[in-house]
Amino acid sequence: MNTLLVDVCDTLYRENTTFDFMAWRNRDDPTESRLLESRRRFWHRLHYRLTGHDRIRTRIIGQLTVAESKILKKQGQQFLDSITRIEKT
User: Fold this and answer.
1) Among 25, 55, 58, 80, which residue's Cβ finds the most Cβ atoms within 10 Å?
2) Cα separation of 44 and 2, whole Å?
């Protein structure tokens, strides 16, 4: 059986599940941690507003395509177990 959990921001979890998962997953990698932090910088936000292209999102999501499915499922479950679910949805 395949399961897909899609969270519209602030519906099931308060976290931005995409970026918070990637930050959690790469927490021991200083290069990736800096990359994720750079999303908050002015130049990245300006580039995104002008072009509509989020280079950082593309790069970090690209990491998932080369990851082993079994490991991603385990990591995904561990991440969900570590965050708080919104009780009233």
Assistant:
1) 25
2) 35
- Tokens standing for residue 27: 């927490």
- The separation between CA 67 and the C-alpha centre of its own chain, rounded to angstroms, equals 14
Which token pair is 43? 């130049």
- CA 22 to CA 32: how far, in whole Å? 9
Residues of the chain under the 50 pLDDT cut: none
* Predicted pLDDT of residue 30: 85
Alpha helices in the chain (DSSP H): 17-25, 30-37, 42-51, 55-66, 69-82
What is the rounded end-to-end Cα distance, in angstroms, of the chain? 25
Candidates 83, 84, 37, 85; CA nearest to 60 is 37
Residue 85 bridge partners (DSSP): 13
Helix (H, G, I), strand (E, B) or coil at 13: strand
Give the per-residue pLDDT at 8. 66
